[in-house]
Specification:
6-stranded antiparallel β-sheet; 517 residues; thick filament; repeat; muscle protein; Immunoglobulin-like; mainly beta; single chain; 36 strands; cell adhesion; Myosin-binding protein H
Amino acid sequence: ETPQASSSAAMTGKAAPPAAPKKKPAPTPKEEAAQEPAPVPAPVPAAAPAAEEPPAPEHPPTAEQPPAPADAPAPVPTPEATPAPEEGVPAPPAEAQAPAPEPKPEKPKAEPPSSPLSLTVEEVSENSVTLTWKAPEQTGRSNLDGYVVEICKDGSTDWTAANEEPFLSTRYTIQDLSSGDKIHVRVKAVSASGASVPATLEQPVLIREILQLPRIRMPRHLRQIYVRRVGDAVNVMIPFQGKPKPEVIWTKGDQPLDTSRINIRNTEKDTIFYIRQAQRSDSGKYDLTVRINGAEDKATLDIRVIEPPGPPQNLKLVDVWGFNVALEWTPPVDNGNSEIKGYVVQKSDKKSGKWFTALERCTRTSCTISDLIIGNTYSFRVFAENACGLSEKAAVTSGVAHIEKTKTAYQPEKIPQRDMMEPPKFTQPLTDRTTTRGYSTHLFCSVRGFPQPKIIWMKNQMEIREDPKYIAMIEQGVCSLEIRKPSPFDGGIYTCKAVNPLGEASVDCKLDVKGKI
Protein backbone atom coordinates (compact mmCIF):
# COMPACT_ATOMS: atom_id res chain seq x y z
CA GLU A 1 0.00 0.00 0.00
CA THR A 2 2.87 2.41 0.64
CA PRO A 3 4.21 2.27 -2.91
CA GLN A 4 0.74 2.99 -4.22
CA ALA A 5 0.43 6.05 -2.05
CA SER A 6 3.84 7.32 -3.10
CA SER A 7 3.08 6.78 -6.78
CA SER A 8 -0.22 8.61 -6.38
CA ALA A 9 1.61 11.54 -4.78
CA ALA A 10 4.15 11.66 -7.55
CA MET A 11 1.46 11.86 -10.23
CA THR A 12 -0.38 14.69 -8.58
CA GLY A 13 2.63 16.59 -7.33
CA LYS A 14 1.02 16.85 -3.89
CA ALA A 15 1.57 15.21 -0.55
CA ALA A 16 -0.74 12.18 -0.39
CA PRO A 17 -3.28 12.36 2.40
CA PRO A 18 -3.17 8.56 3.18
CA ALA A 19 0.52 8.81 4.10
CA ALA A 20 -0.21 11.27 6.83
CA PRO A 21 -0.86 8.64 9.60
CA LYS A 22 2.63 7.06 9.02
CA LYS A 23 4.59 10.26 9.78
CA LYS A 24 6.42 10.03 13.06
CA PRO A 25 6.78 13.77 13.78
CA ALA A 26 3.01 14.17 13.81
CA PRO A 27 1.59 15.62 17.05
CA THR A 28 -0.16 12.26 17.92
CA PRO A 29 2.27 10.24 20.15
CA LYS A 30 0.74 6.81 19.42
CA GLU A 31 2.44 4.73 16.79
CA GLU A 32 -0.58 2.48 16.41
CA ALA A 33 -2.36 5.16 14.46
CA ALA A 34 0.54 5.28 11.99
CA GLN A 35 0.22 1.49 11.37
CA GLU A 36 -3.47 1.57 10.53
CA PRO A 37 -4.55 0.79 6.95
CA ALA A 38 -3.96 3.64 4.49
CA PRO A 39 -7.41 4.15 3.05
CA VAL A 40 -9.22 6.28 5.57
CA PRO A 41 -12.41 7.56 3.94
CA ALA A 42 -13.22 10.31 6.42
CA PRO A 43 -10.07 12.54 6.28
CA VAL A 44 -9.38 12.14 2.56
CA PRO A 45 -12.31 14.14 1.16
CA ALA A 46 -11.91 16.80 3.82
CA ALA A 47 -8.23 17.36 3.10
CA ALA A 48 -8.48 17.09 -0.69
CA PRO A 49 -9.96 20.55 -1.43
CA ALA A 50 -7.61 22.22 1.01
CA ALA A 51 -4.59 20.84 -0.78
CA GLU A 52 -4.92 23.51 -3.51
CA GLU A 53 -4.34 26.46 -1.16
CA PRO A 54 -0.81 25.85 0.27
CA PRO A 55 2.24 26.30 -1.94
CA ALA A 56 3.19 22.64 -1.69
CA PRO A 57 2.54 22.02 -5.42
CA GLU A 58 5.36 24.41 -6.26
CA HIS A 59 7.94 21.94 -4.80
CA PRO A 60 7.33 18.51 -6.39
CA PRO A 61 9.32 15.59 -5.00
CA THR A 62 12.64 14.71 -6.72
CA ALA A 63 14.91 11.76 -6.86
CA GLU A 64 17.03 13.08 -3.97
CA GLN A 65 13.93 13.49 -1.83
CA PRO A 66 11.92 10.25 -1.63
CA PRO A 67 8.21 10.76 -2.02
CA ALA A 68 7.06 9.03 1.14
CA PRO A 69 9.72 7.43 3.43
CA ALA A 70 8.33 6.08 6.64
CA ASP A 71 10.75 7.87 8.93
CA ALA A 72 11.09 11.25 7.03
CA PRO A 73 9.03 14.36 7.97
CA ALA A 74 6.87 16.16 5.39
CA PRO A 75 8.82 18.84 3.43
CA VAL A 76 6.24 21.54 3.94
CA PRO A 77 3.69 21.63 6.74
CA THR A 78 0.33 21.41 4.99
CA PRO A 79 -3.19 20.63 5.99
CA GLU A 80 -2.67 17.15 4.46
CA ALA A 81 0.04 16.46 7.02
CA THR A 82 -2.27 17.10 9.92
CA PRO A 83 -2.77 13.85 11.90
CA ALA A 84 -6.12 12.16 11.63
CA PRO A 85 -8.42 12.55 14.58
CA GLU A 86 -9.35 9.69 16.79
CA GLU A 87 -11.87 7.17 15.62
CA GLY A 88 -15.48 8.09 16.11
CA VAL A 89 -14.84 11.87 15.91
CA PRO A 90 -15.83 13.48 12.56
CA ALA A 91 -13.10 15.48 10.83
CA PRO A 92 -13.62 19.29 10.88
CA PRO A 93 -13.75 21.08 7.50
CA ALA A 94 -10.46 22.16 5.97
CA GLU A 95 -11.42 25.85 5.99
CA ALA A 96 -11.72 25.83 9.76
CA GLN A 97 -8.25 24.27 10.16
CA ALA A 98 -6.47 26.78 7.84
CA PRO A 99 -5.22 29.95 9.61
CA ALA A 100 -7.32 32.98 8.64
CA PRO A 101 -5.30 35.73 6.87
CA GLU A 102 -5.09 39.06 8.60
CA PRO A 103 -7.55 41.61 7.11
CA LYS A 104 -5.83 44.29 5.01
CA PRO A 105 -7.07 47.90 4.97
CA GLU A 106 -9.17 48.51 1.88
CA LYS A 107 -7.75 51.01 -0.63
CA PRO A 108 -9.97 54.01 -1.41
CA LYS A 109 -11.97 53.36 -4.52
CA ALA A 110 -10.61 55.30 -7.52
CA GLU A 111 -12.97 57.84 -9.00
CA PRO A 112 -14.14 57.32 -12.59
CA PRO A 113 -13.20 59.93 -15.23
CA SER A 114 -15.30 63.03 -15.82
CA SER A 115 -17.65 63.45 -18.77
CA PRO A 116 -16.32 64.15 -22.28
CA LEU A 117 -16.58 67.79 -23.36
CA SER A 118 -18.08 69.64 -26.34
CA LEU A 119 -19.98 66.78 -27.92
CA THR A 120 -21.14 67.97 -31.35
CA VAL A 121 -22.36 66.54 -34.67
CA GLU A 122 -19.79 66.98 -37.41
CA GLU A 123 -21.63 65.42 -40.33
CA VAL A 124 -24.91 63.65 -41.05
CA SER A 125 -25.66 61.49 -44.07
CA GLU A 126 -28.60 59.32 -45.04
CA ASN A 127 -27.26 56.33 -43.08
CA SER A 128 -24.56 57.63 -40.73
CA VAL A 129 -23.68 60.39 -38.29
CA THR A 130 -20.18 61.60 -37.35
CA LEU A 131 -19.51 62.91 -33.83
CA THR A 132 -16.63 64.83 -32.32
CA TRP A 133 -15.83 65.72 -28.71
CA LYS A 134 -12.98 66.69 -26.41
CA ALA A 135 -11.24 64.61 -23.77
CA PRO A 136 -12.54 64.88 -20.19
CA GLU A 137 -10.82 67.25 -17.80
CA GLN A 138 -10.18 64.51 -15.21
CA THR A 139 -9.26 60.90 -16.00
CA GLY A 140 -8.76 59.69 -12.41
CA ARG A 141 -5.80 57.66 -11.20
CA SER A 142 -6.19 55.11 -13.96
CA ASN A 143 -5.35 55.84 -17.55
CA LEU A 144 -8.25 56.32 -19.92
CA ASP A 145 -9.16 53.07 -21.72
CA GLY A 146 -11.28 54.85 -24.32
CA TYR A 147 -14.80 55.94 -25.13
CA VAL A 148 -18.10 54.15 -25.61
CA VAL A 149 -20.73 55.65 -27.93
CA GLU A 150 -24.35 54.75 -27.23
CA ILE A 151 -27.48 55.49 -29.24
CA CYS A 152 -31.17 55.42 -28.48
CA LYS A 153 -34.07 55.94 -30.86
CA ASP A 154 -36.32 58.89 -30.14
CA GLY A 155 -39.23 57.78 -27.92
CA SER A 156 -37.32 54.79 -26.52
CA THR A 157 -35.24 54.35 -23.38
CA ASP A 158 -33.16 51.43 -24.65
CA TRP A 159 -29.56 52.56 -25.04
CA THR A 160 -27.27 50.34 -27.12
CA ALA A 161 -23.52 50.60 -27.66
CA ALA A 162 -22.44 51.58 -31.15
CA ASN A 163 -18.85 50.31 -30.71
CA GLU A 164 -17.86 46.88 -29.38
CA GLU A 165 -14.60 47.91 -27.73
CA PRO A 166 -13.56 51.27 -26.20
CA PHE A 167 -11.41 53.44 -28.48
CA LEU A 168 -9.22 56.51 -27.77
CA SER A 169 -10.14 58.68 -30.76
CA THR A 170 -12.37 61.73 -30.11
CA ARG A 171 -14.15 61.28 -33.43
CA TYR A 172 -16.50 58.48 -34.34
CA THR A 173 -18.89 57.69 -37.18
CA ILE A 174 -21.99 55.62 -36.41
CA GLN A 175 -22.80 53.53 -39.48
CA ASP A 176 -25.78 51.49 -40.70
CA LEU A 177 -28.51 53.86 -39.50
CA SER A 178 -31.96 54.07 -41.04
CA SER A 179 -32.80 57.18 -43.00
CA GLY A 180 -35.52 59.25 -41.39
CA ASP A 181 -34.87 58.00 -37.83
CA LYS A 182 -34.30 60.35 -34.93
CA ILE A 183 -31.67 59.12 -32.53
CA HIS A 184 -30.25 60.36 -29.25
CA VAL A 185 -26.49 60.02 -28.84
CA ARG A 186 -24.28 59.98 -25.78
CA VAL A 187 -20.59 59.27 -25.13
CA LYS A 188 -18.95 57.82 -22.01
CA ALA A 189 -15.31 57.88 -20.98
CA VAL A 190 -14.16 54.48 -19.67
CA SER A 191 -11.20 53.57 -17.45
CA ALA A 192 -10.29 50.83 -14.99
CA SER A 193 -12.14 52.83 -12.32
CA GLY A 194 -15.41 52.71 -14.24
CA ALA A 195 -17.42 54.74 -16.72
CA SER A 196 -18.04 58.50 -16.57
CA VAL A 197 -21.32 60.32 -16.56
CA PRO A 198 -22.31 60.36 -20.26
CA ALA A 199 -22.15 63.49 -22.40
CA THR A 200 -25.44 63.66 -24.31
CA LEU A 201 -26.54 65.72 -27.31
CA GLU A 202 -29.28 68.15 -26.37
CA GLN A 203 -31.39 67.43 -29.47
CA PRO A 204 -32.01 64.19 -31.33
CA VAL A 205 -30.28 63.78 -34.68
CA LEU A 206 -32.44 63.24 -37.76
CA ILE A 207 -30.72 60.77 -40.03
CA ARG A 208 -30.95 62.24 -43.49
CA GLU A 209 -28.46 63.68 -45.89
CA ILE A 210 -27.33 67.26 -45.21
CA LEU A 211 -26.45 68.80 -48.51
CA GLN A 212 -24.48 71.64 -46.88
CA LEU A 213 -23.36 71.98 -43.27
CA PRO A 214 -24.48 75.14 -41.43
CA ARG A 215 -21.92 77.93 -41.34
CA ILE A 216 -22.28 81.53 -40.20
CA ARG A 217 -20.41 84.16 -42.26
CA MET A 218 -20.05 86.94 -39.72
CA PRO A 219 -19.17 90.29 -41.41
CA ARG A 220 -15.79 91.70 -40.49
CA HIS A 221 -17.14 94.84 -38.76
CA LEU A 222 -19.35 92.68 -36.52
CA ARG A 223 -16.49 90.51 -35.26
CA GLN A 224 -15.57 93.31 -32.85
CA ILE A 225 -17.76 95.36 -30.53
CA TYR A 226 -20.59 97.01 -32.48
CA VAL A 227 -21.06 100.51 -30.98
CA ARG A 228 -24.24 102.56 -31.39
CA ARG A 229 -25.59 105.67 -29.65
CA VAL A 230 -28.71 105.83 -27.54
CA GLY A 231 -31.68 106.40 -29.83
CA ASP A 232 -29.94 105.08 -32.97
CA ALA A 233 -31.35 102.13 -34.87
CA VAL A 234 -29.53 98.78 -34.82
CA ASN A 235 -29.96 97.03 -38.16
CA VAL A 236 -27.62 94.06 -38.65
CA MET A 237 -27.74 91.40 -41.36
CA ILE A 238 -25.69 88.24 -40.85
CA PRO A 239 -25.48 85.79 -43.79
CA PHE A 240 -25.15 82.03 -43.33
CA GLN A 241 -25.21 78.87 -45.41
CA GLY A 242 -26.69 75.40 -45.03
CA LYS A 243 -29.06 73.02 -46.82
CA PRO A 244 -31.79 72.17 -46.13
CA LYS A 245 -32.99 75.42 -44.55
CA PRO A 246 -31.30 75.75 -41.14
CA GLU A 247 -33.02 76.52 -37.86
CA VAL A 248 -31.95 79.99 -36.60
CA ILE A 249 -31.91 80.63 -32.84
CA TRP A 250 -31.08 83.96 -31.14
CA THR A 251 -30.42 84.13 -27.38
CA LYS A 252 -29.01 86.62 -24.88
CA GLY A 253 -27.51 85.11 -21.75
CA ASP A 254 -29.08 81.71 -22.61
CA GLN A 255 -32.50 83.37 -22.59
CA PRO A 256 -34.82 84.08 -25.53
CA LEU A 257 -34.88 87.63 -26.89
CA ASP A 258 -37.45 90.24 -25.89
CA THR A 259 -39.52 90.36 -29.07
CA SER A 260 -41.22 93.59 -27.93
CA ARG A 261 -37.92 95.42 -28.50
CA ILE A 262 -35.95 93.25 -30.91
CA ASN A 263 -37.22 92.10 -34.29
CA ILE A 264 -35.69 89.06 -36.00
CA ARG A 265 -36.33 88.16 -39.65
CA ASN A 266 -34.86 84.95 -41.07
CA THR A 267 -34.50 83.82 -44.66
CA GLU A 268 -32.81 80.83 -46.22
CA LYS A 269 -29.52 82.71 -46.50
CA ASP A 270 -29.42 85.35 -43.73
CA THR A 271 -30.90 86.64 -40.51
CA ILE A 272 -31.68 90.29 -39.72
CA PHE A 273 -31.37 91.70 -36.19
CA TYR A 274 -33.26 95.00 -35.79
CA ILE A 275 -33.85 97.45 -32.92
CA ARG A 276 -35.76 100.62 -33.77
CA GLN A 277 -34.36 102.83 -30.96
CA ALA A 278 -31.43 101.46 -29.02
CA GLN A 279 -31.19 101.84 -25.26
CA ARG A 280 -28.30 101.17 -22.95
CA SER A 281 -30.12 98.09 -21.65
CA ASP A 282 -29.78 96.62 -25.16
CA SER A 283 -26.00 96.35 -24.68
CA GLY A 284 -24.61 92.84 -24.32
CA LYS A 285 -23.64 89.67 -26.15
CA TYR A 286 -26.21 88.04 -28.41
CA ASP A 287 -25.60 84.40 -29.37
CA LEU A 288 -26.62 83.19 -32.83
CA THR A 289 -27.01 79.45 -33.51
CA VAL A 290 -27.67 77.99 -36.96
CA ARG A 291 -28.65 74.31 -36.71
CA ILE A 292 -29.49 71.48 -39.13
CA ASN A 293 -30.37 68.11 -37.57
CA GLY A 294 -27.95 68.44 -34.68
CA ALA A 295 -25.12 69.96 -36.76
CA GLU A 296 -24.73 73.60 -35.80
CA ASP A 297 -22.55 76.70 -35.99
CA LYS A 298 -22.44 79.52 -33.46
CA ALA A 299 -21.44 83.19 -33.47
CA THR A 300 -21.64 86.08 -31.02
CA LEU A 301 -22.78 89.65 -31.73
CA ASP A 302 -21.44 92.08 -29.10
CA ILE A 303 -23.44 95.34 -29.03
CA ARG A 304 -22.58 98.39 -26.92
CA VAL A 305 -25.02 101.31 -26.75
CA ILE A 306 -23.35 104.50 -25.49
CA GLU A 307 -24.34 108.05 -24.58
CA PRO A 308 -22.49 111.19 -23.36
CA PRO A 309 -20.96 110.87 -19.88
CA GLY A 310 -21.98 112.70 -16.76
CA PRO A 311 -20.10 115.78 -15.49
CA PRO A 312 -16.86 115.43 -13.52
CA GLN A 313 -17.14 115.48 -9.75
CA ASN A 314 -15.55 117.54 -6.96
CA LEU A 315 -13.89 120.27 -9.06
CA LYS A 316 -11.57 122.28 -6.79
CA LEU A 317 -9.44 125.40 -7.20
CA VAL A 318 -6.29 124.14 -5.51
CA ASP A 319 -3.84 127.05 -5.81
CA VAL A 320 -3.28 130.44 -7.45
CA TRP A 321 0.19 131.91 -7.93
CA GLY A 322 1.56 134.47 -10.36
CA PHE A 323 -0.20 133.96 -13.70
CA ASN A 324 -1.12 130.29 -12.92
CA VAL A 325 -4.03 128.34 -11.43
CA ALA A 326 -4.07 124.64 -10.34
CA LEU A 327 -7.30 122.58 -10.63
CA GLU A 328 -8.31 119.08 -9.48
CA TRP A 329 -11.43 116.92 -9.96
CA THR A 330 -12.64 113.29 -9.96
CA PRO A 331 -14.07 111.19 -12.86
CA PRO A 332 -17.82 111.27 -13.51
CA VAL A 333 -20.10 108.75 -11.83
CA ASP A 334 -21.62 107.71 -15.17
CA ASN A 335 -19.16 107.22 -18.04
CA GLY A 336 -21.97 106.76 -20.59
CA ASN A 337 -21.11 103.06 -21.09
CA SER A 338 -17.87 104.09 -22.79
CA GLU A 339 -14.31 104.77 -21.65
CA ILE A 340 -13.51 108.39 -20.71
CA LYS A 341 -11.05 109.69 -23.32
CA GLY A 342 -10.22 112.97 -21.57
CA TYR A 343 -11.48 116.29 -20.19
CA VAL A 344 -11.95 119.77 -21.65
CA VAL A 345 -11.06 122.69 -19.34
CA GLN A 346 -12.48 126.15 -20.03
CA LYS A 347 -11.91 129.57 -18.41
CA SER A 348 -14.01 132.74 -18.24
CA ASP A 349 -12.91 136.18 -17.08
CA LYS A 350 -15.31 138.35 -15.11
CA LYS A 351 -15.11 141.28 -17.53
CA SER A 352 -16.31 139.52 -20.70
CA GLY A 353 -18.19 136.57 -19.19
CA LYS A 354 -17.33 134.42 -22.23
CA TRP A 355 -15.93 130.89 -21.98
CA PHE A 356 -12.70 129.97 -23.76
CA THR A 357 -11.04 126.55 -23.98
CA ALA A 358 -7.82 126.51 -21.98
CA LEU A 359 -6.99 122.77 -22.28
CA GLU A 360 -8.41 120.28 -24.78
CA ARG A 361 -8.57 116.55 -23.97
CA CYS A 362 -6.64 116.56 -20.73
CA THR A 363 -6.10 112.88 -19.86
CA ARG A 364 -5.49 113.42 -16.13
CA THR A 365 -7.82 114.60 -13.36
CA SER A 366 -5.67 117.65 -12.55
CA CYS A 367 -4.14 120.46 -14.55
CA THR A 368 -2.42 123.86 -14.40
CA ILE A 369 -3.74 126.85 -16.35
CA SER A 370 -1.06 129.43 -17.22
CA ASP A 371 -0.72 132.77 -19.06
CA LEU A 372 -3.59 134.43 -17.23
CA ILE A 373 -3.92 138.23 -17.42
CA ILE A 374 -2.95 140.35 -14.42
CA GLY A 375 -5.86 142.05 -12.75
CA ASN A 376 -8.57 139.70 -14.15
CA THR A 377 -10.83 137.40 -12.13
CA TYR A 378 -11.41 133.93 -13.60
CA SER A 379 -13.90 131.08 -13.23
CA PHE A 380 -13.26 127.55 -14.53
CA ARG A 381 -15.36 124.56 -15.69
CA VAL A 382 -14.53 121.01 -16.84
CA PHE A 383 -16.36 118.71 -19.30
CA ALA A 384 -15.87 114.93 -19.54
CA GLU A 385 -15.50 113.34 -23.00
CA ASN A 386 -16.04 109.79 -24.29
CA ALA A 387 -16.58 108.21 -27.72
CA CYS A 388 -20.06 109.79 -27.85
CA GLY A 389 -18.81 113.34 -27.17
CA LEU A 390 -18.73 115.88 -24.33
CA SER A 391 -20.88 115.66 -21.25
CA GLU A 392 -24.04 117.73 -21.39
CA LYS A 393 -23.20 119.47 -18.14
CA ALA A 394 -19.89 120.69 -16.75
CA ALA A 395 -18.41 120.91 -13.30
CA VAL A 396 -17.87 124.58 -12.33
CA THR A 397 -15.52 125.86 -9.64
CA SER A 398 -17.31 127.29 -6.62
CA GLY A 399 -14.67 130.01 -6.14
CA VAL A 400 -12.88 132.41 -8.46
CA ALA A 401 -9.20 133.10 -9.07
CA HIS A 402 -8.02 136.74 -8.97
CA ILE A 403 -4.71 137.37 -10.68
CA GLU A 404 -3.10 140.17 -8.65
CA LYS A 405 -0.39 142.52 -9.88
CA THR A 406 2.92 141.83 -8.21
CA LYS A 407 4.85 144.87 -6.97
CA THR A 408 8.27 145.02 -8.62
CA ALA A 409 10.77 147.90 -8.78
CA TYR A 410 12.22 148.57 -12.19
CA GLN A 411 15.99 148.67 -12.23
CA PRO A 412 17.45 149.72 -15.59
CA GLU A 413 20.40 147.81 -16.80
CA LYS A 414 23.68 149.54 -16.34
CA ILE A 415 25.53 149.88 -19.63
CA PRO A 416 29.21 150.79 -19.39
CA GLN A 417 30.09 154.05 -21.16
CA ARG A 418 32.34 153.66 -24.16
CA ASP A 419 34.80 156.28 -25.33
CA MET A 420 33.81 157.03 -28.93
CA MET A 421 36.37 159.85 -29.47
CA GLU A 422 38.85 159.21 -32.28
CA PRO A 423 40.91 161.36 -34.66
CA PRO A 424 40.09 161.48 -38.40
CA LYS A 425 41.17 158.48 -40.47
CA PHE A 426 40.62 157.91 -44.14
CA THR A 427 39.28 154.43 -44.84
CA GLN A 428 39.21 154.90 -48.62
CA PRO A 429 41.81 157.24 -50.25
CA LEU A 430 41.52 159.33 -53.42
CA THR A 431 42.59 157.74 -56.69
CA ASP A 432 44.26 159.36 -59.70
CA ARG A 433 41.88 160.10 -62.50
CA THR A 434 42.03 161.15 -66.16
CA THR A 435 39.08 162.96 -67.70
CA THR A 436 38.16 164.69 -70.95
CA ARG A 437 37.77 168.40 -71.37
CA GLY A 438 34.19 169.61 -70.99
CA TYR A 439 32.95 166.44 -69.18
CA SER A 440 32.26 166.80 -65.47
CA THR A 441 34.12 164.37 -63.11
CA HIS A 442 33.95 163.31 -59.44
CA LEU A 443 36.60 162.58 -56.82
CA PHE A 444 35.64 160.22 -53.92
CA CYS A 445 37.10 159.20 -50.56
CA SER A 446 35.78 158.07 -47.16
CA VAL A 447 36.74 159.14 -43.65
CA ARG A 448 35.75 158.39 -40.06
CA GLY A 449 36.32 160.12 -36.76
CA PHE A 450 34.47 161.48 -33.75
CA PRO A 451 33.57 164.29 -33.41
CA GLN A 452 32.73 164.44 -37.09
CA PRO A 453 35.73 165.98 -38.81
CA LYS A 454 35.65 169.13 -40.99
CA ILE A 455 36.49 168.47 -44.65
CA ILE A 456 38.71 170.85 -46.61
CA TRP A 457 39.40 170.38 -50.34
CA MET A 458 42.58 171.87 -51.87
CA LYS A 459 44.04 172.16 -55.35
CA ASN A 460 47.79 172.37 -55.63
CA GLN A 461 47.87 173.06 -51.83
CA MET A 462 45.43 175.95 -52.27
CA GLU A 463 42.11 175.71 -50.47
CA ILE A 464 39.10 175.65 -52.73
CA ARG A 465 36.64 178.17 -51.41
CA GLU A 466 33.25 179.16 -52.72
CA ASP A 467 33.79 178.48 -56.37
CA PRO A 468 30.78 177.53 -58.50
CA LYS A 469 32.97 175.26 -60.57
CA TYR A 470 33.39 172.90 -57.58
CA ILE A 471 30.65 171.21 -55.52
CA ALA A 472 31.84 169.45 -52.29
CA MET A 473 29.59 167.08 -50.30
CA ILE A 474 29.88 164.62 -47.36
CA GLU A 475 27.32 161.96 -46.44
CA GLN A 476 27.74 159.03 -44.00
CA GLY A 477 31.52 159.61 -44.05
CA VAL A 478 31.78 159.57 -47.87
CA CYS A 479 33.41 162.77 -49.26
CA SER A 480 32.91 163.78 -52.88
CA LEU A 481 34.12 166.69 -55.05
CA GLU A 482 32.44 167.43 -58.38
CA ILE A 483 34.47 169.39 -61.00
CA ARG A 484 32.07 170.81 -63.54
CA LYS A 485 33.22 170.90 -67.21
CA PRO A 486 36.94 170.88 -66.47
CA SER A 487 39.55 172.43 -68.77
CA PRO A 488 43.22 171.62 -69.00
CA PHE A 489 43.78 174.43 -66.53
CA ASP A 490 41.77 172.39 -63.89
CA GLY A 491 44.27 169.56 -63.91
CA GLY A 492 46.71 169.17 -60.97
CA ILE A 493 47.02 167.67 -57.46
CA TYR A 494 43.79 167.59 -55.39
CA THR A 495 43.91 167.07 -51.62
CA CYS A 496 41.15 166.18 -49.14
CA LYS A 497 41.92 167.12 -45.54
CA ALA A 498 39.84 166.03 -42.47
CA VAL A 499 40.26 167.96 -39.20
CA ASN A 500 38.72 167.55 -35.69
CA PRO A 501 39.89 168.40 -32.17
CA LEU A 502 41.88 165.15 -31.90
CA GLY A 503 43.87 165.57 -35.10
CA GLU A 504 43.82 165.72 -38.84
CA ALA A 505 44.43 163.51 -41.88
CA SER A 506 44.68 164.07 -45.63
CA VAL A 507 44.76 162.15 -48.93
CA ASP A 508 45.52 163.45 -52.45
CA CYS A 509 45.33 162.38 -56.09
CA LYS A 510 46.31 163.65 -59.53
CA LEU A 511 43.72 164.79 -62.06
CA ASP A 512 44.70 164.95 -65.73
CA VAL A 513 42.39 166.74 -68.19
CA LYS A 514 42.86 165.95 -71.86
CA GLY A 515 41.66 167.98 -74.77
CA LYS A 516 39.09 166.70 -77.34
CA ILE A 517 40.39 164.72 -80.28
